[in-house]
Amino acid sequence: MTTIYLERREPAHNRQRFYTLTVAQTLFGSWTLIREWGRIGHPGTVREAWFESESAAIEAGAKIRRQKERRGYRAIGGAGQGLTQKPPL
Fold this sequence. Notes:
Layout: E1 2-10, E2 15-25, E3 31-39, E4 45-51, H1 54-70, E5 74-75
Antiparallel strand pairs: 1-2, 1-5, 2-3, 3-4
């Protein structure tokens, strides 16, 4: 399971948002990208998308991460290195 936690804090505008991306394998062998977002300190909205392969789920998560980083979100903690494409074997 790979998890990325992003935050966007703008105290001048009273914006304190989070966005979490998690790639995990389901019990049936497929892969899911779980997204959660909302205001820091409050329950967030959760959405799931299913994929046939881990690489497809990681690619989709990386695309969303790039979009969020362009909008001012930043990775927090040691989780900032996840959701990058794995090198081929």
